[in-house]
Amino acid sequence: MAFSPCIAPLVILFLIFGCAARPFYPLPSKVADGTRKPLQTSRPYNLAHRGSNGELPEETAPAYMRAIEEGADFIETDILSSKDGVLICFHDVTLDATTDIYQHKEFAKRKRTYEVQGVNTTGFFPVDFTLKELKSLRVRQRYSFRDQQYNGKFTIITFEEYISIALDATRVVGIYPEIKNPVFINQHVKWPNGKRFEDKFVETLKKYGYKGSYLSKEWLAQPAFIQSFAPTSLVYVSNLTDLPKIFLIDDVTVPTQDTNQSYWEITSDSYFDYIKKYVVGIGPWKDTVVPVENNYLQTPTDLVARAHSHDLQVHPYTYRNENQFLHLNFNQDPYEEYDYWINKIGVDALFTDFTGSLHNYQEWRSLSSNDSDDRASKLLHKIAEMINS
Ligand SMILES: *[C@@H]1O[C@H](CO)[C@@H](O)[C@H](O)[C@H]1NC(C)=O
Ligand SMILES: *[C@@H]1O[C@H](CO)[C@@H](O)[C@H](O)[C@H]1NC(C)=O
Ligand SMILES: *[C@@H]1O[C@H](CO)[C@@H](O)[C@H](O)[C@H]1NC(C)=O
Ligand SMILES: *[C@@H]1O[C@H](CO)[C@@H](O)[C@H](O)[C@H]1NC(C)=O
Fold first, then answer.
1. Where are the domains of the chain?
2. Which of 235, 239, 258, 277 to mutate to test the pocket of ligand 2 (most atoms within 8 A of CB)?
3. Which residues line ligand 3 (CB under 6 A)?
4. Which of 216, 278, 307, 371 is most buried, by the most CB atoms less than 10 A from its CB?
5. Which residue's CA lies nearest to atom 9 of ligand 3?
6. Of ligand 1's atoms, which has the minimum distance to the CA of residue 118?
7. Which residue has the CA at smallest separation from atom 14 of ligand 2?
8. What pLDDT sits at residue 383?
9. pLDDT tens, residue by residue, 99-147
């Protein structure tokens, strides 16, 4: 599927980036081969959740470019489909919360109610709009307490446009796309020759050269993780690509959308034994790894230890700087939260809305960490324990 040509109302983006076949980003040919800084693999991955969406409207080109500038190892996205079968980067199953759809009177009659994961949901669904129609909308910041000045400035982008942002970066930046709501998408969108959403998803990755198992030479050249909450989609795509996959795990109250399995079933040792044939890790909500009561962390569960004992990585979501998201143990300091999850819980990657903060934390930590400092702090800890006992 070719990129859609530039559309007249995109005046602002024209001024910034000019208009060409691949309008928004420098061409790969401008990046000298072999000079790209490789992906770092020595510390937990910084996953830019929906781009740098703490600062810019989520899943837009500027949010992804900002995340790359701020040091993301991977840019993360959610893949849905337009009515005409074009894969797009968009989180919600409706357009209502993060676009200006309500200002488009021409679409007022498109409001629908569909059952999504067992819940009747009313709104404007991307699956009822062609790509051209979706491109006429503008994206908004989701949270009222975040910067509103970019509302109405950026478009929804396609999966292919997102990939080109990663490939055109001047260092190696991975992608981390989610097969989002696959049961719903396969119900509402039909592709020629009986192809499924998952087939289109993997076809797109292959078209741009994404292949290879975790840490293989091909993978390190173009790193990618495939993520989904639907285990049957992960099992299905494991027949199509050996790219590493991450099994996302929802809150303890939410059953899987395809197999209707409970949280307890899919986090059991026997299930980990089964799913590890298809995935390299799990992506749990962080509050299920360490339960929270009255906004204070409780004793951590054994989820990370058990996943690691099955050779599964753990990539929890989502880390956010703002006070309303930081549990009180962290004294309103996001660095304390990162320190806890990286050094006490021992996770392998973190989905963050503020890639810049996680990157700064990791850089400063690696500058100041120092064997003799570590020894000194262990000694102090021991002394404190002796005094307490
Ligand atoms: C959704 O609405 C339809 C039509 O009113 C109804 O038949 C169905 O049971 C509802 N589904 C759920 C999950 O509430
Ligand atoms: C994977 O491919 C094999 C061989 O073509 C087939 O027998 C199997 O059913 C496929 N599995 C899935 C989950 O599609
Ligand atoms: C999912 O499982 C629950 C608990 O076993 C059951 O009550 C429910 O009817 C199931 N839902 C579907 C759609 O099969
Ligand atoms: C490492 O620790 C030593 C001894 O405490 C100190 O002199 C040195 O400056 C430290 N290095 C860094 C990079 O912090």
1. 11-388
2. 239
3. 255, 260
4. 307
5. 260
6. 13
7. 236
8. 81
9. 999 999 999 999 999 999 999 999 999 999 999 999 999 999 999 999 9
Question: What is the pTM for the complete model shown?
Answer: 0.86
Distance 175 CA to ligand 2 centre (A): 26
Nearest CA to ligand 1 atom 4: 120
* CATH code, residues 11-388: 3.20.20.190
Which mean pLDDT values do the consecutive 10-residue runs of the chain (389 residues) have? 42 41 50 78 97 98 98 98 98 98 98 96 98 98 98 98 97 98 98 98 98 98 98 98 98 97 98 98 98 97 98 98 97 97 97 98 82 68 78
Q: Tell me the ligand closest to 379's alpha carbon.
A: 4
Query: Three-state SS across the chain?
Result: CCCCCCCCCCHHHHHHHCCCCCCCCCCHHHCCCCCCECCCCCCCEEEECCCCCCCCCCCCHHHHHHHHHCCCCEEEEEEEECCCCCEEECCCCCCCCCECHHHCHHHHHHCEEEEECCEEEEECCHHHCCHHHHHCCCECCCCCCCCCCCCCCCCCCEHHHHHHHHHCCCECCEEEEEECCHHHHHHHCCCHHHCCHHHHHHHHHHHCCCCCCCCCHHHHHCCECEEECCHHHHHHHHCCCCCCEEEEECCCCCCCCCCCCCHHHHCCHHHHHHHCCCCCEEEEEHHHHCCEECCEECCCCCHHHHHHHCCCEECCECECCCHHHCCHHHCCCHHHHHHHHHHHHCCCEEEECCHHHHHHHHHHHHHHCCHHHHHHHHHHHHHHHHHHC
Q: What percent of the chain has pLDDT over 70?
A: 89
Which of 230, 224, 181 lies closest to 204, judged by CA?
224
- 389/383 Cα distance (integer angstroms): 10
Tell which one of 113, 119, 120, 257 to mutate to probe ligand 1, the residue whose CB is within 8 A of the most ligand atoms: 120
